[in-house]
Automatic annotation (TrEMBL):
Pfam families: Bmt2. The gene is BMT2. It comes from Carlito syrichta (Philippine tarsier). This is Probable methyltransferase BMT2 homolog. InterPro entries: Bmt2/SAMTOR, SAM-dependent_MTases_sf. GO terms for molecular function: methyltransferase activity.
Length: 247
């Protein structure tokens, strides 16, 4: 991924506080629909307009990224080496919106670029194995290949590599978008503890899960030898493909 410029161009979608900005090896663009800090650009990623890729040298592309205007309404395709979805996809209320996000990530990545996905899940590592297998199939259908999967006790971590410039045709009719589901998609309004979705308040359990999720992000101290987070002593599981063993 490292180009002649020495910088890895990274797009952090739903960037809370632009955590990658402090790493010199990255040329980071953090975007959020409601930015929390000044260094994050305002951007509605679902409605982001994609343009033709830039036919420029690497240093010129780096200069282009450093001069982006706020808010961001459009970006050229094949612009980034890495796209990060950290605790992002589960916030969208429908599988199709998650699908659109992954499709845009594919179009924004250079060939062999990486899509890194972190999504919360406090269940034991096998409970949602079928869901993660479903995600793998759906995302790979866009022109990715998953090469890494890890399970923390409160989140899934997935790394996908872009292996083709174009996606396969007729993906929607094969219901690939619907495969990017989460358990909450199957809750009816009557099952919820609120009557107006716009006034939804997270439960204490969801707050705790979200807090643990942030503790397990890369910024938290981590002891790779012991397999536990030094900050929270949360166990860590790492699995290679094939994705979880079903028994």
């Amino acid at each position: 991924l490292l180009q002649a410029s020495g910088k890895i161009r990274l797009l952090d979608v739903g960037s809370c506080f632009n955590p990658f900005l402090k790493f010199e090896e990255f040329l980071t663009v953090g975007i959020d629909i409601v930015p929390a800090v000044e260094s994050v650009y305002k951007c509605d990623f679902l409605n982001l307009q994609l343009q033709q890729p830039l036919q420029l040298a690497q240093d010129a592309i780096d200069a282009f990224l450093k001069q982006l205007k706020n808010p961001i309404d459009s970006l050229p395709g094949e612009l980034f080496h890495v796209v990060v979805f950290s605790l992002l996809l589960s916030y969208f209320p429908s599988p199709y919106q998650r699908w659109i996000c992954c499709k845009k990530a594919h179009e924004l990545l250079v060939l062999n670029g990486l899509l890194l996905i972190i999504t919360p899940d406090s269940s034991h590592q096998n409970r949602h194995a079928m869901m993660m297998k479903s995600w793998k199939i759906a995302i790979e259908s866009l022109g990715f290949k998953r090469f890494k999967y890890s399970k923390f006790s409160h989140m899934h971590l997935m790394a996908f590599r872009k292996i083709s410039l174009k996606t396969t045709s007729d993906l929607v009719s094969r219901n690939y978008p619907g495969m990017l589901y989460i358990p909450q998609d199957f809750h009816s309004v009557e099952d919820e503890e609120y009557s107006n979705p716009s006034c939804y308040v997270r439960s204490d359990i969801e707050d705790e899960q979200l807090a643990y999720g942030f503790m397990e992000l890369p910024d938290a101290p981590y002891d790779s030898d012991s397999g536990e987070s030094q900050a929270s002593s949360i166990p860590f599981y790492e699995l290679e493909d094939p994705i979880l063993l079903l028994s």
